[in-house]
Amino acid sequence: MAHRNTLPGSVGGTSLTRRPVRVLAPAAALVLGSALLSACGGSSDSDGLTSVTVGSNGNIFDMPLKLADSAGYFRKQGLKVKFVTTTASTGTSALQSGSVQFLNNSPTGFTSALAKKVPEVAIAVSGLGNPLGLVVSKKFAAAHKLTAETPAAQVAQALSDSKGGVSSANTKAEAGLFLKANGVDPGKVKWVTLPSASADKAALSSGQIDWFITSEPIPLQVQNEGDGIVVADPKKAPMWAAAQAGYGEVVVATKSYLSGHAGAAKKFVAAVQEANNYLATHQGDPTVMDVARKVQQGVPDEVLKSSVALVEWPKSGSMDAAGWTKTLAFVNSLGALPKGAEVSSENWTNKYLPAGGQS
């Protein structure tokens, strides 16, 4: 950025005497220094905390980050965290521009960015598996004698020749995996593409579709309101669970940020790992539920508790080559990545994790 050297009060660009310059210079330097620190994501507040901004997408995978903030884990590490809502289309650009220093991102989003040669690095896994729910209307459930306990194969057979709602290519593919695993051709389903998960819910209520699939808590909320029954989740559909699908969400930063702020990165993932440890062992307790209510406002406690339980919260944020191989196999099975997309050992690291969580 270019700066004019003419001072306030000068005439025709002629400088004033040196004395005012000496008075103003320290103040100008202070403002400039503060701006530079802020732009680099390394500004320090008067209380000695380092301020960083994280992009999150407002779903259940935000739980460890919001818990780390609410429970004081970030503050204990010397960080003050600001949250910015990002989407699949805005997260990577926000990270590149420096408006966020960390991004809680899906493996699909992360790998897609790598395929575009964006210099990002995954520095911790923050959630495992895919907390999906497949919910059918009560009318459809009654007609096909389906309940929440109906075996997966019977559910899949009932969905053949039905009208299924999807709001993304990913959820359609995930439903397809479930159907194929249980001997049903996804091509027999009459797919109805809708603009959002909320539109899925409305279409189910109006009878436009027989069922839909999306991430929790919406399917469980539909069931809780008496408008449908969840007939498949990761417990019944293992292809959606961590054992087969791998990583569900990872913490990402740019290589340039990490090169200058290794200390902040270590503090950030240490706090997230502490929060995940708590989530893994205290699901449903008052602290967790208080955070869940903030992450998913207006959702009943019973639904929140069940949704949180569907995510496998890792006690360690560490990753390995086998985990990424599994994750990429799942994402590729959805057809969500460009041909040749991969994650190499240069694209992820455990070196910022606490010593006990690196293996």
Automatic annotation (TrEMBL):
Gene3D superfamilies: Periplasmic binding protein-like II (3.40.190.10). Keywords: Signal. Pfam families: NMT1_2 (PF13379). It is found in: Periplasm. It comes from the Bacteria. Its main location: periplasm. This is ABC transporter substrate-binding protein. Belongs to the bacterial solute-binding protein SsuA/TauA family. The keyword Protease does not apply.
